[in-house]
Design brief:
about 180 residues; globular; about 50% strand; mainly beta; single chain; eight-stranded antiparallel beta barrel; 8 strands
């Protein structure tokens, strides 16, 4: 097990591929997502996890590691109604030129459950660029909702999916491109 962790760590932090940056500004993604509620003395209606397939998002690199991201997802085939429109600013710590791009985000959502509710979102994520156009993205968001709102409680919102870059990445960057 230790060997696997070391190998994964070395692969993740040693390979460099271009990702979303000032030359490659637009990406789109499709994910599996879910709203994860904590059970609290029976106050949660419906299931503890509300699956959302697909979650669709589009991102645009703005400047200096900052990207603007918009997403949409709805629960299909679940007993609980949950549709979300998300907007967030993502900051990638200047790592946008690498194949592993960790980021933090802050944003807001408009959720439609029984009624329309707003949340404030904070989160973390990581995009693993597998090729010049395709990547794998993991994201974990905490959606904060005031306690006085009974229709929607604060919850975690993880997602896992694929990312596509609209312009190909240069896999062999030149010194003058930095």
């Amino acid at each position: 097990m230790k060997i696997k962790v070391i190998i994964i760590f070395l692969l993740v932090f040693s390979i460099h591929i271009k990702s979303q940056n000032k030359q490659q500004k637009w990406t789109a993604g499709i994910s599996l997502a879910g709203a994860m509620y904590t059970l609290d003395a029976g106050k949660v209606l419906g299931s503890q996890l509300v699956f959302q397939v697909p979650r669709i998002n589009i991102s645009r690199y703005m400047f200096k590691g900052l990207s603007l991201d918009f997403g949409f997802a709805t629960a299909l085939g679940d007993t609980q109604t949950y549709t979300t429109f998300d907007g967030a600013f993502r900051f990638d710590f200047g790592q946008s030129n690498y194949n592993v791009v960790p980021y933090i985000l802050i944003g807001a959502s408009s959720l439609k459950g029984k009624v329309i509710t707003s949340t404030i979102n904070i989160g973390v994520g990581n995009t693993f660029w597998l090729s010049s156009k395709y990547g794998l993205n993991f994201q974990l968001i905490y959606k904060y909702s005031k306690d006085i709102i009974q229709s929607q409680r604060s919850h975690l919102y993880p997602s896992l999916g694929f990312v596509y870059s609209f312009s190909a990445r240069n896999l062999n960057p030149r010194i003058w491109q930095d």
